[in-house]
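Tokens as discussed.
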């Protein structure tokens, strides 16, 4: 059944019809439901709440798909009887049933060995006779009370949080006014609206995939020169060159390898950036116009996944395609950034923190693959493990705590300190237009919530929240002096809900409120406002533009 559900999910994702199995499965509290959930997330020590979340989200996704295909009229006795079978009766109804049985026994109408079917039949007959007598005596037909229509659950707009009466055509998560506002705000950082000067240079970290990739593409298409950083530079080059319009901007792109779990890589990146600026400057003073601190460590990849990515880098090295886009340097991709964690006081061996670990020995740590045989094909699957997004304070490995702070906080600080002298100008203190831009990509996880026990935190991913709070403090502490001394507009941007942890992939029917393009528009909005309107926005935490 679990395999069937996963196959149905794949069919839905590819736009094909799926089976009706999801309609007939019970809830998680049923024995069968728990059994299927165990196979969907096959980890012995996985908590029941996580199994339930994975199982029920997948059922909801498939059932919603079936509803949209006109299959929502399946009779209740066929679709919901398995759901209702396990629903306990209220205490009041059990009490009434007991009184009826005791009365029947006391009047010698039933015995201790009377079959249940006989009792049910007798009760139905008695109810039918009584109803007939009451109808004859009063000559009034019992009114049929119509069933109240089911009230659909209100959907709230992703931006204004008010109930949606009619959704925006391209963003079902938004009401029409907010959808129009979102689209208009995003479009100002796209061509032809935004045309950047040919000497405009931007450094975008974490630009191989997702948000960083789409942000770098926007800048390139608006005419900027872009230095893109990533742990896997050759793979990044291949991705950029696959874009249909790459011939129009490839000469303005450079890709640098850097793993921000290593401080040495951050300093090496600063050095490579200065060299690239010198090359592009044609003898002029090197100048950087925008620093987008996008790279982030939220969920840690498994060792095996990193090894596969490194192997791909080795394979791509043999290919000369895109060689001119790479800033080679001395960088080499390595597992865990080549920084084997040290054993900290209070840690235990089950946290994969082994004193004296070397890069070669990483191959013997981490997750063990599981072979899954299906017919004649055998595939290697990585076992599911609870991601740090749902881990508590005592579950999160210290390695993840340290790497999150290195990537999310320490490296942005290093880059700002090393590259700020190359940005802006000390001779433009009276200018109202920014001479440069720093965008620290963060999230609301780094701020205090209005309510205690807010569900967006509530004991989970404390290490990520800490690092984002520190990143927000860089902006709040340094933005004023950066603007006053060099006319650099520094802001923190929350790009929005674009991706989810593995445990929440199927939530909200497997879709997110906004996409990577929306996120890129939010990241570049303060830059576009400065360039198009000569208006400075600095020192802010920006969300929803």
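Sequence:
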């Amino acid at each position: 059944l679990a395999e069937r559900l996963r196959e149905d999910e794949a069919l839905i994702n590819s736009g094909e019809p799926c089976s009706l199995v999801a309609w007939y499965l019970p809830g998680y509290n049923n024995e069968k439901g728990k059994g299927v959930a165990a196979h969907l997330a096959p980890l012995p020590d996985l908590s029941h709440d996580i199994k339930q979340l994975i199982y029920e989200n997948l059922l909801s996704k498939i059932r919603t798909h079936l509803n949209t295909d006109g299959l929502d009229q399946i009779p209740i006795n066929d679709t919901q009887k398995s759901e209702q079978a396990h629903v306990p009766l209220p205490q009041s109804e059990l009490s009434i049933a007991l009184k009826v049985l005791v009365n029947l026994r006391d009047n010698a109408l039933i015995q201790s060995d009377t079959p249940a079917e006989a009792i049910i039949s007798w009760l139905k007959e008695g109810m039918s006779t009584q109803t007939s007598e009451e109808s004859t005596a009063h000559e009034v037909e019992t009114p049929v009370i119509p069933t109240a229509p089911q009230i659909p659950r209100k959907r709230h707009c992703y931006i204004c949080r008010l109930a949606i009466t009619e959704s925006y055509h391209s963003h079902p998560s938004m009401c029409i006014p907010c959808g129009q506002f979102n689209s208009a705000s995003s479009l100002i950082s796209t061509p032809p609206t935004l045309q950047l000067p040919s000497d405009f240079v931007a450094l975008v970290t974490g630009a191989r995939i997702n948000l960083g990739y789409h942000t770098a593409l926007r800048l390139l298409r608006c005419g900027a020169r872009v230095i893109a950083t990533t742990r896997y530079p050759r793979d990044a080059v291949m991705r950029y060159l696959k874009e249909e319009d790459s011939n129009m901007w490839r000469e303005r792109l450079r890709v640098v390898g850097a793993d921000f779990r290593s401080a040495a890589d951050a300093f090496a990146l600063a050095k490579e950036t200065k060299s690239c600026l010198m090359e592009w400057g044609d003898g002029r003073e090197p100048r950087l116009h925008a620093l987008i601190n996008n790279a982030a460590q939220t969920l840690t990849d498994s060792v095996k996944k990193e090894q596969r990515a490194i192997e791909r880098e080795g394979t791509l090295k043999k290919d000369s395609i895109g060689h001119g886009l790479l800033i080679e340097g001395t960088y080499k991709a390595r597992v865990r950034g080549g920084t084997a964690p040290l054993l900290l006081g209070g840690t235990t061996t089950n946290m994969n923190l082994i004193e004296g670990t070397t890069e070669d020995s990483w191959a013997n740590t981490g997750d063990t693959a599981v072979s899954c045989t299906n017919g004649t094909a055998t595939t290697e699957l990585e076992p599911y493990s609870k991601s740090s997004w749902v881990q508590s304070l005592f579950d999160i490995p210290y390695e993840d705590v340290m790497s999150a702070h290195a990537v999310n906080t320490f490296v942005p600080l290093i880059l700002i300190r090393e590259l700020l002298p190359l940005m802006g100008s000390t001779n433009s203190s009276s200018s109202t237009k920014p001479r440069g831009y720093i965008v620290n990509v963060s999230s609301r996880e780094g701020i205090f919530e209005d309510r205690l026990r807010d569900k967006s935190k509530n004991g989970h991913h404390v290490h990520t929240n800490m690092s984002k709070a520190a990143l927000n403090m860089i902006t709040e502490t340094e933005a004023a002096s950066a603007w006053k001394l060099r006319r650099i507009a520094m802001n923190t941007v929350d790009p929005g809900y674009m991706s989810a942890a593995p445990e929440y992939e199927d939530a909200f029917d497997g879709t997110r409120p906004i996409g990577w393009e929306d996120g890129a528009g939010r990241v570049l909005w303060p830059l576009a406002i400065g360039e198009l309107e000569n208006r400075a926005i600095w020192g802010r935490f920006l969300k929803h533009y």
